Fold:
Amino acid sequence: MISVRRRGVARLAAAVLASGLVAAGAIATASTAAADDTPPSQGGAAATLSGLRTFDKAVIHDNGKDQEVGAGLFEMAVDNGGSIQTYCIDLHNPTQSKAQYNEKSWSQTSLANNSDAGKINWILQNSYPQVNDLTALAKKAGSDALSEKTAAAGTQVAIWRFSDHAKVDAVDPAAEKLADYLEKNAQNLGEPKASLSLDPPAVSGKAGDRLGPIKVNTNADSVTLTPGTDAASSGVKLVDKSGKAITSAANGSEVYFDVPAGASDGSASLTVQAATKVPVGRAFASDTKSQTQILAGSSESTVSATATANWAKKGAIPAISAEKDCAKGGVDITATNKGDEAFTFELLGQKYTVEAGQSKTVTAPVKEDQSYKFTITGPNGFEKTFSGVLDCKTASSGGSSSDTPSSQPSPASAGGSTGGDTTGGDLAETGSSSNTPMIAGIAVALVAVGGGAIFFVRKKKATAGE
Structure:
């Protein structure tokens, strides 16, 4: 929630200078010859940052300087319906106005290397807005009274002490007592599961087979399954393991692409959507270098995930997926080969071979704050591209910043909280609204692409036998 203009510009400029490229775009759908996933993600909620809505003041003590900042709850508008509220877990990085965010696992954020991540989850479960009885919360903290603003500020301060290991105090005495209480009593809780994910997000096989399974993991009662137009044009159907055509599924269900025996070599896509509340404690990250957030409350919201299938009659038949890995400091590229010949690809100047029927995961190292773009090609026009920005560290964990954060959160609304009706969700009673999600019946892409340094990963030229 802090705008660090000078530092933010410097970090972004460094990425641009390293790459020599500034670009932005959006991935729409997967064609029969190519499919793009940007950034690497297996699904969940996608949202746009609205601003800091319920907050009070805090003071950061850093490098011998004291800086007053806003501390409290952000609000985000979920794509296709819904609202979420979040706290910051990335103190010294700036927020970008109207930044696009995607639900992430902790392993894809700075929480991957933070032994106190579970304590942050405990704070979220045991403070505002999950605890809306502010009188009872104040009593536990040993203070006289808490307002929504001071409760949000105290909660945020306690979170910063674990997320950034920052020296920070709330200005309001009641908020400071709450922060101290939460810090002292916090216990390690496990990471909440994703609102929606598909495992794996890419499959492959021979024409005439059922390709999969793709397992649906969700906290929603049910999800809708929508094949892309590429599937319909190839005669591909979505079926369960018995071969029955399906248009919906539940948690734990297995979905297959049923590819006709006479289908030409190609690929198809699938979009899965549902309406559910995103679990408190899920991380949200942006590829526009906007500070990482963690979920504090959710109305019923639209969540989505995509998967692809690639098939051929013979030869190598790759399925490629990617995911940020902050523990390793890079992007994990997973290649599976369901064909009858070996599949060879090149990653950062080194060749890797995946034998028929085998799978291999290779980590592509990427520097912190570095934009990346990986493209993998294969036989029959196959091409898969992944891009994004590696944002795995807070400024304090990097240890290289001496800049003092600005006192003005960016973006922020004037005067603290705004009102709104939040029936049907677990949001705070201020600063949010409840929208009925509109579940679209078409394939969609929910991510915004950040430009930057480009790495090319190419499969070796196909031989005449392929």
Summary: The helical segments are 5-19, 117-126, 134-141, 148-163, 173-185, 229-234, 395-398. The chain has seven helices and 26 strands. The CA atoms of residues 80 and 440 lie 8 Å apart.
